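Troubleshooting: if your tokenizer reports a length mismatch, compare against these two reference records.
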Amino acid sequence: MHIMNLTPDSYPIGTPGQPWGATELAEWRARQMKQRSYAADVLNAIDALRSRFDVSTYGEVRYGDEHYPLMAIRSRHWQAARPCVLVTGGVHGYETSGVHGALQFVDQHAQPLSEAVNLLVVPCVSPWSYERVHRWNFDAIDPNRSFRESSPAQESVALMQLIASLAERFTAHIDLHETTDTDESEYRPALAARDGLPFEPGTIPDGFYLVDDAGNPQPAFQQAIIAAVQKVTHIAPADADGQIIGSPMVAPGVIRYPFKSLGLCAGVTGARYTTTTEVYPDSAIATPEQCIAAQVEAVRAAIAFVVAAQRASADML
């Protein structure tokens, strides 16, 4: 667990106690520089999957003269009797292992699993912020607080429209995320500055954990994922107060948030089984490859749980 040594009201943009206006937003945008390529890293990887999966453009994000196609990967030969599973990554563009974990899962594991489930994978929900290694979009909005009616985030609207366009009801949704040191050194201070609030330093958990839905808790589902992932990387312990990122740990490596009321991506389908994964890429005892592997293992374990649950239900009929 890392405690960040930051002082309140130290963010370089804005006036303490005053929310940002257009001037501060423009200053913030000017600081966001491209650091990697969505086309090279994501679109090229998706193109390589077209011979084995159905690939579609479900929307487009446009900011000024920049535009990014939004891509979805779908297993072939969907069948009504199979559970439908959604996997999303890159809702926060800076959370690298979510994007590459989703792509690696499709490449290495999705084809055989599609004999048991219908799979829809959206590897990178927020391409503008992926390129700039940032949490927010161009408008300094967090897409993962924007999955709601009249959403201000293009990325969130596009994904909600994709899901609404499908006739199928999803059984599970796994949303792949990271918690990084920059959450405390950059993003939470920026959030406080943007909203004109004081910044209150917190702690960063060292290890993998899950966020369950407080409105629809599925403890057995979460623990099945934790059990699988702990074979790949370490699970985050609770802090001295029994919490992870300020929320009570309800089971090893699990906390709960109200998905719908917070506008979180994991609440967008209304699926029975939902979770948000969180890996810690800044850990001294985890590599970037382990973080990607943890995301892949989380998806595989979630699907295995769903398939077993469906079989158990069928056996009772």
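Reference record two:
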Amino acid sequence: MKKWLKVSFSLVLIAILIIPLAACGKDKVQNIRIGEVTRSIFYAPQYVALEKGFFEEEGLNVELTTTAGGDKTMTALLSDSIDIALVGSETSIYVYAQGSNDPVINFAALTQTDGTFLVSREKIDNFSWEQLKGAIFLGQRKGGMPQMVGEFVLKKHGIDPHQDLDLIQNVDFANIAPAFASGTGEFVQLFEPTASVFEQEGKGYIVASFGEESGNLPYTTFMTKESTIKEKKETVEKFTRAIYKAQQWVDTHSAEEIADAIKGYFDNTNIETIEMVVERYKNQGSFATNPILNEEGWNNLQDVMEEAGELPERIDYETLVNTKIAKGVMK
């Protein structure tokens, strides 16, 4: 009887000790809401971080929402509907130029080139940029990075997008692909996997890469309000560390392995297409291998914006870019 009492007492004591510890661990889990500007294989490292449990390892519970468009994503961030935005760096410049007293800070790079491709309605065996002259071109939203890079590349090849093309810019971001599929335009600028899917379905053909043509750019970065970095610095550091782990994983694994890891985020795309797109992005260096947004890319970004006539003012690198967090987690 005494032996039974001792065993029972021991079990009760263990339970008393374990329950508070479990509760304590649960309390330490921090919720983070991410708003991504679109769902794209271009953001493969983010999905790897989710699937491989890198956020969980940092004690973070991540809720991912696709906010469809840079303006909508930034509105969600500024209204506190999300904590972190994955969107083009140009949006932080627009917010700053409007006189925000809580500027949006770029703290972790995810991609370092443009992620769009030029798609032709007809198959072209020997494409040249000259073939765009006089064509109906379904472009991206005015003032967004895809459109600005598109215009930058066109001008690089001696094409005035507003004089030499019949340029369509009034289609909402989410409706550009459906508009092309339904017959609008002879050429269109599309993200993956849509570009490859269209090619497989015979709706269009990839003829050029805007990423290869435009060079290094902080095309899509994780950003948050300056106040959030001050108030939740440790959380932002944990988030960045998880992203860095994912970037390293993507850099050291094959397209096949990456495709297998992220396939759950692209239910309507077959695994072969995902693998092909990942390989394409890897080959052109689109995935950043670390979260540091470099100054060269930042200046190139503003050159592209200026060329498009969309840069409200040049902003110093240190004003809207925080590299301390990224450098810290890389140590």
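Descriptive notes for reference record two:
- Residues 2-28 form the longest helix (27 residues).
- Confidence is low (pLDDT under 50) at residues 1-26.
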